[in-house]
Amino acid sequence: AINTAAGVYVRIGANTDGLGLTGALDEVRLYNRALADAEIAALAAAP
Asked: Coil, helix or strand for 3?
C-alpha cells in the first residue's frame, strides 16, 4: 500500500539515503487495490 496523504511523495526506486536506484525497472504494474494472494501467485507464475 502507498500512503496517499497530502505532502507525501511516491518514489519508485529511491532508497532511504536519498540516492536513486542504479539500474532499471521492467514490467512495473500499479493497481488501485490490494491484490489477493491467488492473484499475486498467478502473476508470479505467468511467463
From this structure: coil
